[in-house]
Amino acid sequence: MTDLSGRVAVITGAARGIGHATAARFLEAGASVVLADLPGSGVEQVAAALGGPAHGVVCNVTDAVQVADLVRETVRVFGALDIMVANAGIAPAAPFLNLTPEEFRRVVDVNLTGSFLCVQAAAKQMVAQACTGRAPGAIVLMASVQAQSVAETHAAYAASKGGVVQLTKAAAVALAPYGIRVNAVGPGSVTTDLNDEALTPALRRAVAARTPLGRMGRVDEIAQAVLFLASEAGSYVTGQTLYVDGGRLALALTMTDGKDEAE
Ligand SMILES: NC(=O)c1ccc[n+]([C@@H]2O[C@H](COP(=O)([O-])OP(=O)(O)OC[C@H]3O[C@@H](n4cnc5c(N)ncnc54)[C@H](O)[C@@H]3O)[C@@H](O)[C@H]2O)c1
């Protein structure tokens, strides 16, 4: 059910982290994959290093012209576009009282407007393909547990991810008549190449205390959820956000709160 043979996928923010792991998982599942990322990310070399039918494209998701070019380039290279994973995102920290309007707009521009541009451009291509009889496509956005619960240093990020969850529902409803499914994955705290060294022991302990499974997530665990939603395995799922968070959102307090009293 998770076989992607014959399917063409675009993954944004794919030069590293969750996007990269998703590209690798999709290739294993038989898809042809376009990896998109910023100038300077080395995305072309990253795609070449993956082997298989992978192609790297430089694209800033905040630019509608570049996103339209990304879709065109995908169709030129692989003949169609069946799956869009709008994964590119940024999460800069700023204390709420110091958060500038410019910084707020920048985060929303990448995480929310960028997702919208990718979803809409892909959907136009998928609708055109559906009219020719090709099997309907699927779209997966990248939300976060911070769509539901927030860190005070990440107001813009949390607001943008809350928007991603609602954008997911809006696109799902609009595209359902074409058979196109739209869902999101909401990761908890995931170890990526980038943040692995930045995570202090204290931060790891804080994550563990807030996570029933007691550890950070791995990028392959997020990729697996994206694959479920993008493939036939998720054929009756649309408009949903699947939180892959080790139980974080189910937990009211922390895993250690009240222990002394209970013992
Ligand atoms: N890592 C986590 O703990 C975590 C948790 C929840 C949600 N997420 C979400 O998962 C997604 C991927 O995160 P990650 O941890 O792999 O991050 P990452 O920083 O390792 O990778 C993000 C990629 O997106 C690219 N990117 C940034 N701005 C872009 C733009 N304007 N256009 C195109 N590409 C752009 C970056 O160059 C980078 O390669 C993000 O949307 C993030 O918010 C991550």
Q: What number is the mean pLDDT?
A: 95
Report the strand count. Answer: 9
Shape: globular
| CATH level 1 name | Alpha Beta
In short:
The chain has 263 residues and is α/β, with parallel strands linked by helices.
Structure keywords:
binds nicotinamide-adenine-dinucleotide; alpha/beta; 9 strands; single chain; 8 helices; 263 residues; two-stranded parallel ribbon
Explain what you see.
- This protein has 263 residues and is an alpha/beta fold.
- It has helices spanning 17-28, 43-50, 64-78, 101-130, 155-175, 201-209, 219-230, 259-262, and strands at 8-12, 32-37, 54-58, 83-86, 138-142, 181-187, 190-191, 217-218, 241-244.
- The strands form 2 sheets. A 7-stranded parallel β-sheet has the order 3-2-1-4-5-6-9, sandwiched between helices. A two-stranded parallel ribbon has the order 7-8.
- Strand 2 (32-37), helix 2 and strand 3 form a beta-alpha-beta unit.
- 45% of the residues are buried.
- The structure holds nicotinamide-adenine-dinucleotide (NAD).
- Residues 12-13, 15-19, 37-38, 41, 59-62, 87-91, 110, 114, 142, 144, 187, 189-190, 192, 194 line the site of nicotinamide-adenine-dinucleotide (NAD).
SSE layout and pairing:
Blueprint lengths: L7 E5 L4 H12 L3 E6 L5 H8 L3 E5 L5 H15 L4 E4 L14 H30 L7 E5 L12 H21 L5 E7 L2 E2 L9 H9 L7 E2 H12 L10 E4 L14 H4 L1
Parallel strand pairs: 1-2, 1-4, 2-3, 4-5, 5-6, 6-9, 7-8
Bound molecules: nicotinamide-adenine-dinucleotide.
Nicotinamide-adenine-dinucleotide (NAD) binds next to helix 1 and helix 4.
